[in-house]
Specification:
With about 350 residues, the chain is an alpha/beta fold. It is about 30% helix and about 25% strand. The chain has helices at about 10-20, 50-55, 85-90, 125-135, 150-160, 175-180, 190-195, 205-210, 215, 255-265, 295-300, 305-310; strands at about 1-5, 25-30, 35, 40-45, 60, 65-70, 95, 120-125, 140-145, 220-225, 230-235, 240-245, 245-250, 265-275, 280-290, 315-325, 330-335. Strands 10, 11, 12, 13, 14, 15, 16 and 17 form an eight-stranded antiparallel sheet that branches. Helix 5 packs across helix 6 (about 175-180). The protein is elongated, with a radius of gyration of 23 Å. It starts with a strand and ends in a 10-residue tail after the last strand. The structure holds NADP nicotinamide-adenine-dinucleotide phosphate.
């Protein structure tokens, strides 16, 4: 594919490198402008306040498929519903909002991931196939959130996180972090705390309220186990934060997961709550407590509706030592120091 990249900075330059490695031909256009006549697709990756000026210097754009990666950190023209609508008003072809929720400084870590990072995108039908292919060829897993009407939501998503208090900033995206870094009010050392690669020790405190209310809020944790009978996955409505670095749940069904845990303690736990802005993956090792004080403590924490499904209290307390926690969109990584069970993800 011939791709014209408008904006050859972190995003434009970074994606251009990745696309070239995937076999595409890329024309890199900076603030001096250029020609996009040969392009099958155009990427817009300039500061949001410069969209009109940047596109105005590029010839051959009319009717091209355009992917807009901009975020409104440099302002927006409120005449348009979203920055992507503004791009469409100039170029006129099918448009997509994509790549704006992924932090460019992490592009060089994409290939190290066991699971491809997601690239959330909103697109008109005519831009979907190209966006999917170019997401894939850049190393991402494209995830369609909807049509052009959702472009603004993807832009606001980041700004909303940016506006959150610092104490809750672990949910903030790296793009948001970049914006904070540029602001004098944001201390550099606080920003660095949240950078991927500078792993923090495990601390589940800020996630406890959400996870502990998972049953009431209908956002149950999902547990994945592995064992001799193969993998198993399922909701665990009783999942709770036990302490700073442990989760627990009441194993009342005593079926597939229990059989797996008896032969292999490794587990993965996923928690997702759109309202709370939390998407977590936790990896660790489970211990089974069939009697004794730890089982009693776990039972005490178990939400009543879950215990009522086990009137004879035959359940087993499962204590999960969390060795690693990641927020895929937030760039947060917590990791236990020293020996872990070696789970990946
Ligand atoms: N950095 C991230 O992690 C990230 C992630 C997602 C989305 N975004 C968004 O993507 C866009 C680009 O971000 P970036 O980090 O790549 O920025 P950047 O590294 O600062 O690069 C900006 C690019 O825009 C060009 N540019 C600046 N002013 C221009 C003008 N008046 N006319 C034409 N071109 C102009 C620059 O051209 P020259 O090369 O000629 O200087 C440069 O190539 C922004 O909207 C940003 O919010 C950033």
């Amino acid at each position: 594919m011939n791709i014209a990249v408008i904006g050859r900075g972190k995003v434009g330059g970074g994606l251009a490198d990745r696309w070239e490695r995937a076999g595409h031909t890329v024309t890199r256009i900076g603030r001096d402008g250029g020609d996009a006549s040969d392009a099958d697709a155009v990427l817009v990756a300039v500061p949001s306040g410069r969209i009109a000026e940047a596109l105005g210097k590029v010839s051959g754009l009319a009717g091209k498929i355009a992917i807009d990666a901009t975020n409104p950190f440099a302002g927006r023209d409120e005449k348009y519903e979203s920055l992507t609508h503004q791009v469409k008003s100039i170029i006129g072809g099918p448009v997509a909002k994509a790549f704006n929720t992924n932090f460019a400084d992490l592009y060089d870590q994409i290939d190290d991931q066991r699971v491809r990072p997601s690239n959330l995108y909103a697109a008109e039908d005519g831009a979907r196939a190209v966006t999917e292919q170019l997401s894939h060829d850049a190393g991402f897993d494209p995830v369609l959130v909807g049509g052009l009407e959702l472009a603004r939501a993807l832009e606001e998503h980041l700004m909303g996180l940016e506006a959150r208090p610092l104490e809750r900033a672990s949910a903030a995206s790296f793009t948001a972090m970049q914006g904070r870094e540029n602001s004098s009010a944001f201390k550099q050392d606080e920003c660095r705390r949240f950078r991927l690669g500078a792993a923090m020790p495990i601390d589940l405190t800020e996630y406890a309220e959400g996870i502990n209310n998972g049953l009431a809020e209908g956002t149950f944790c999902v547990l994945a186990t592995c064992g001799q009978r193969g993998p198993d996955v399922g909701f665990k409505g009783s999942m709770q934060v036990f302490d700073k670095d442990h989760l627990c749940y009441w194993e009342r069904t005593r079926s597939g997961h229990l059989a797996n845990l008896r032969s292999d303690p490794r587990v993965g736990v996923m928690y997702f709550n759109r309202e709370r802005g939390k998407y977590l993956r936790m990896y660790g090792s489970a211990g089974l407590y069939e009697d004794g004080p730890t089982r009693e403590q776990i039972m005490t924490r178990t939400p009543v509706p879950e215990l009522e499904k086990d009137p004879e209290r035959r359940g087993i307390g499962v204590l999960i030592r969390v060795d690693r926690l990641v927020e895929p969109f937030g760039g947060v990584k917590q990791e236990r120091e020293g020996d872990t069970v070696g789970n990946q993800g």
